[in-house]
Structures are given as structure tokens and as C-alpha cells.
Design brief:
Number of domains: 3
Radius of gyration: 29 Å
Structural class: alpha/beta
Low-confidence stretches: 521-538
Strand order of the largest sheet: 1-2-3-4-5-6-7-8
Distance between the termini: 53 Å
CATH superfamily of the largest domain: Aldolase class I
Shape: elongated
Helix content: 40-55%
Number of strands: 16
CATH topology of the largest domain: TIM Barrel
CATH class of the largest domain: Alpha Beta
Mean pLDDT: 87
């Protein structure tokens, strides 16, 4: 039987100390609910009474009736005072949380410099605070701040801190690498020493990523005897971040054989990581292990050829295990295998021996050389493949467009677009305003097409990005425009490239609408096919 490891998530407390991360009470509640569904065992919600958001969170989280233990964070009583009178400890008790993570000093240097008290008083602060909270019926996790630095500087005192916390009744002794500077072999050795000294409490590990070792250190601590890992989703946290639970959970469960969360919950890992990223409004690195969009993406032709035979050739796990998926990228490195794989994924039939397939590969490589990038614009790629396969019907014949941008003193900029198109032999000339040139162009194009293609009314632009491809030409540089569009069910991305940002935007806009109509046509075809099958069965 595999050994169980407890997961303590501190995204809502330690994670919010990361630069650029700010969560409202509503955000925290949404994330807490998602973390509970993932199966984490403890959710640290914040510091009760420290700010209005945390006060609201602890008040409202009780209504969610989560399975995870909601945990309140705080510190030991103040020096030369009484635990029962400490306002911080009282707020912890009043929070309604089932457990508390109580931080105390374990590095003698910090006791003298930060607390400016004696080593004996620090031990008393730890004992009194834990004993008081235990008498009030709380589960206590003692976070020994700077434990590894403290042990390396004065091992006798660091161990004395842990003994005192255990004597007071602490349920967990959590070793913190607060500055993130400890090496993996040091973590293993030090945890092994402490594991041989404790008798009633259980051990936990809390690591920071200042040396890019937080995950490795957490894993080594578990191997040495710790039973709980503290960390954050996507590794959010102060400075370089905390231990990333998105890597720790699958590493423990899939690589080291520990019992962490249910396999069905592990399938939700990628979805949870991206959900938290979206709520926090923080870009998620594409190359993030296990859960990043590029974690199981393949670009080299030789690699793709191999994974089509057996994915184990270039994948260390099955992506679906963590809720991710395999992706085949198409670029200037693409070979025939890449094109065939993407075509198969899109439901397009391509004959590998056909000259058209080789022509498509050649065209894609040429376009990538010009600055197009299809890795982030699957919709444009699908249109290209379907056009090469003779499946695409042109929406309209483009004749011209003009832009008018006017700025008057004391007034906002006004943008207006004029478009001339031909649809089924009918010449159309329309104009529309917008809050910028691209928005005006988008509005004018829709205005011209909507009576012919009413399905476009449900489409809207959700993101717009411009990338300068070569800055040596300054304002005359070629640019790449990526546009993300959405309807009620789906989202898709398209690309345009030009030395003129309006022309590049036009290309991406047209592809966006072409793809939208392609998707609606495919949906209608499936509905008709389903209806026909139903009539046959009837």
C-alpha cells in the first residue's frame, strides 16, 4: 500500500504575495471551490482580520461547505505578552477556520534581529500560542520560519523550537525554507534528522523557489519523512514564488508512487491550473510542466512521426492523466507527419503520397519565413489546409477599404472604416465607426456581411495582440497580429502579417469570420446528419 501525502494549498495567502497578483473575496471563494474539487486537503485562506477581503472570505467560505480544511494564518503571540490577550490569536479563533498555520521563528539570528528578544522568550511565545489554540479546539500547524537556515546556523536551537512546538500539542511541524536557498541534499539530510526526533507530531514541508529548487526540495523532504507538502497553484508567491503544486502533485503520485489525490481529481489538474491563472489574471507559461499548453506539444518532424506510432517515444506520461492533451505544432520545422496529424485532428483527409500535401508543407514553411506563426493560430491553419483540400468557398470578393482617423482638440479620437466588397455578384459599400481603427474595420466588415451571414452576429473579438517581428526598421517594421474570437461555445485564433498593422489586422479579421462560418456550417452539417439518422431509425 502506497504512503499518503497531504496537500496544503496556500495560493490564497502566500500566493497572493506574488508580484502582480491581487484577488478579491469573490476570486478567493471561486478558487477555493476549485481547489476543493481538485482534492487538496487544506486551503489556507489568508490572515483573519488583516484586511476586508480576508474578513469577507472567512465569513462566506463557511457557506460553501468544502471538504478541505479551511486554514487561517497567523503568528505567535507578541513578546512579553499573554496568548489569551493576543489580538492576532483571537482573530484566528473567531475566523471559523478548522485549522491554523501558526508561524514562529526557528533561526536564532531572526530571534535576535527581527523579534529583538531572547531565545528563551521565543520558545515561550511558541509554546503559549500553540497551547492556547489547542485548548480552544483548533488543529495547529506550526510553520517554523527559516528552519533550514536556522538549523545550519544553530542546529540545537532549531530542534529545540520544534520540540517546544510538539510539547505544546502542535499537530504538524512544518519546516520552511523561507529564503529558498537550501539545496536538495541539505533538505533531505536535515528532514531526516528531525524525522528521527519527533514522536507525536507529523512533519510538513514549505519551500520557496529562489534557486529554482522548490519542487525538488519538497520531493526530497517527503522522501526523508515529511507527510505534508505546502505550495501554491502555478507556483505563485513572493519573489521567485512557492513550490508549484501543479508539478508536485503529479510527481509524487505518478513518479514516486505516493497516494495524493484520486485519479479522477488528478485529471482536473490542468483545468484547475488554468482556471486559477485566469482568475488571477496572470499569464501562464506555455512550457509549464504537466499543465502548460506546450507540455505535450511536438514540433520536430521526426518527433511527430514517432509519436504517431507510439506517444511514449517522446512523452513521459499520457497527457490525459493530468487533464492535458497532446498537440502537434505546424511551423517551418514541420514535416509531412505534422501536417497529416493536424489534418487528422481537424477531420481533413490528406493523402500522404499526394502532391498537394507537399505543396501545403512548402507553403506553410514559406509563410512562417514571412513571419506567420500557426502555433497560436490553429483557425488560420485549418482554413489553409481546407483551402488546399478544395473545401473552402470564398465569403466575398474584396475590392477596397479606407480608414479615416480624426483627432480634434479636446475630443477623443474617432475612427471610421469604409469597405467595398462583392458578394454573389452584388457590390456592397459600407461604413462604420469604432473606438479604434481595427474595431471600426471589424464593425464595417460585419455590417457588410451580416445580411448574407446572420450567424456572424454572435461572434465577438476577445483578444488582440500585435508583435513587431523585426525592430531594426523601427515604425516600418513588419508586424504579426493575433486575434482571438469567441462565440457562445468556442474560441479560436487567427493570424495576419504585414508591414502595415491595419492590413495585418484585416487578414486576421477575415480569417476569423471565415472560420466562424466554417464552424457553423460544420455544426449544421452534424445536426442534419444526426436528424437524418434519427429519421432512418424512426
Amino acid at each position: 500500500m502506497s504512503k499518503a501525502v497531504t496537500i496544503f494549498d496556500t495560493t490564497l495567502r502566500d500566493g497572493t504575495q506574488g508580484e502582480g497578483i491581487s484577488l478579491s473575496a469573490d476570486d478567493k471563494l471561486k478558487i477555493a471551490k476549485k481547489l476543493d474539487q481538485l482534492g487538496v486537503h487544506y486551503i489556507e485562506g489568508g490572515i483573519p482580520g488583516s484586511n476586508s477581503k480576508d474578513i469577507e472570505f472567512f465569513k462566506r467560505v463557511q457557506e460553501l461547505k468544502l471538504s478541505a480544511k479551511i486554514t487561517a494564518f497567523g503568528s505567535t503571540r507578541r513578546k512579553d505578552s499573554i496568548a489569551e490577550h493576543d489580538p492576532n490569536l483571537k482573530r484566528i479563533l473567531e475566523s471559523g477556520a478548522r485549522a491554523t498555520s501558526l508561524v514562529g521563528k526557528s533561526w536564532d539570528f531572526h530571534v535576535h534581529t527581527a523579534l529583538q528578544t531572547t531565545l528563551e522568550e521565543n520558545l515561550a511565545m511558541i509554546y503559549d500560542s500553540i497551547a492556547y489554540l489547542k485548548r480552544e479546539g483548533m488543529e495547529v500547524l506550526f510553520d517554523a520560519e527559516h528552519f533550514f537556515d536556522g538549523y545550519k546556523n544553530n542546529p540545537e536551537y532549531a530542534l529545540a523550537v520544534m520540540r517546544k512546538a510538539e510539547e505544546a500539542g502542535a499537530d504538524w511541524l512544518v519546516m520552511c525554507d523561507t529564503n529558498g536557498g537550501t539545496m536538495p541534499h541539505e533538505v533531505y539530510d536535515i528532514v531526516s534528522v528531525l524525522a528521527g526526533r519527533v514522536t507525536t507530531a507529523r512533519l510538513g514541508i514549505h519551500t520557496h523557489n529562489d534557486c529554482e529548487l522548490a519542487v525538488a526540495n519538497a520531493l526530497n523532504a517527503i522522501r526523508a519523512g515529511a507527510e505534508q507538502v505546502q505550495g501554491t497553484m502555478n507556483g505563485y508567491g513572493e519573489r521567485c514564488g512557492n513550490a508549484n503544486l501543479c508539478s508536485i502533485i503529479p510527481n509524487l503520485q505518478l513518479k514516486l508512487g505516493y497516494d495524493v489525490i484520486d485519479p479522477e481529481q488528478l485529471n482536473q489538474l490542468t483545468n484547475t491550473a488554468r482556471y486559477v491563472s485566469e482568475i488571477a489574471n496572470v499569464h501562464m507559461p506555455v512550457g509549464q510542466p504537466y499543465v502548460g499548453t506546450a507540455a505535450f506539444a511536438h514540433k520536430g518532424g521526426i518527433h511527430v512521426s514517432a509519436i504517431l506510432r507510439d506517444s511514449r517515444t517522446y512523452e513521459h506520461i499520457t497527457p490525459e492523466t493530468v487533464g492535458n492533451r497532446q498537440r502537434v505544432l505546424v511551423s517551418e520545422l514541420a514535416g509531412q507527419s505534422n501536417i497529416l496529424s493536424k489534418a487528422q485532428e481537424m477531420g481533413i483527409k490528406f493523402d500522404p503520397e499526394n502532391e498537394e500535401t507537399r505543396q501545403v508543407i512548402s507553403k506553410i514553411k514559406d509563410l512562417e519565413h514571412q513571419g506567420y506563426q500557426f502555433e497560436g493560430a490553429d483557425a488560420s491553419l485549418e482554413l489553409l489546409l481546407r483551402q488546399a483540400n478544395g473545401e473552402m468557398k470564398e465569403l466575398f470578393v474584396f475590392e477596397s477599404f479606407k480608414m479615416l482617423v480624426e483627432k480634434s482638440a479636446g475630443k477623443p479620437v474617432v475612427s471610421e472604416a469604409f469597405i467595398k466588397l462583392n458578394i454573389d455578384g452584388n457590390s456592397l459599400y459600407t461604413a462604420a465607426e469604432g473606438n479604434g481603427p481595427v474595431n471600426a474595420l471589424d464593425n464595417a466588415l460585419r455590417k457588410a456581411l451580416i445580411s448574407y451571414y446572420p450567424g456572424l452576429s454572435s461572434i465577438h473579438l476577445s483578444d488582440y495582440k500585435v508583435r513587431v517581428l523585426d525592430d531594426k526598421d523601427a515604425t516600418a517594421s513588419k508586424v504579426r497580429v493575433l486575434i482571438e474570437s469567441k462565440d457562445a461555445l468556442n474560441s479560436w485564433s487567427t493570424v495576419g502579417v504585414s508591414s502595415n498593422v491595419i492590413e495585418a489586422s484585416w487578414e486576421a479579421l477575415v480569417d476569423s469570420l471565415r472560420y466562424a462560418l466554417l464552424g457553423q456550417t460544420k455544426h449544421e452539417h452534424e445536426e442534419l446528419k444526426s436528424a437524418g439518422q434519427g429519421l432512418m431509425n424512426h
